Amino acid sequence: MNQRGRERTRRGRRTDRRADGQSVRRAAASPRVEGRPRRVRREPAKSRLRRGFGAKQAAGATRVLGMSTTRRAAVLAIVVCALAFTLAVPLRTYLSQRSEIAEQEQRQAELRNDVTELQARQAALNDPAQVEAEARRRLRYVMPGETPYLVQLPEDTPQGKQQQAQQPPHPGGVAWYDQLWSTLGG
């Protein structure tokens, strides 16, 4: 046998090459008795029908990946779950940060409104007439030469407040519900 003339194929059969370059297939050497026909192992027709038309395709896929359909489905489920868990935490963080950003933007808008109000108040207080009016109203200041008049009501004085606290809340010193209870109870 010459090296160039024979080559092994994937299925273990040998190929002979002729002088003109065409190949001729020969069956692999097997212990066979001369004169006896070769037995071909076949599946029963029922089992072939039960497997269906996609059996050849599934068998090819099994050979390629080396796993059954159930195992491939399990591996696929595990990969999908791993991806889901990998993406879940960053997605949750992203969504929580979006809500925090919205809250902070709302707070920033409120603070901008406060700043504009305070700037308007500052501009108003730069006017000397406004400052004088605030001093008169809040601090009860008067200009030199003016006579201030302050009217005090009895409730405004500390003595009036002490007198009200010392007076009993109800005439006779007993509340009406206590009187009612005492009359019912005997």
TrEMBL record:
Residues 1-54, 152-173 are annotated as: Disordered. Residues 94-121 form a coiled coil. The keyword Transmembrane helix applies. The chain crosses the membrane at residues 73-91. Residues 7-16 have a biased composition (Basic residues). The keyword Kinase does not apply. Keywords: Coiled coil, Membrane, Transmembrane, Transmembrane helix. InterPro entries: FtsL/DivIC. This is Septum formation initiator family protein. The lineage of its organism: Bacteria, Bacillati, Actinomycetota, Actinomycetes, Pseudonocardiales.
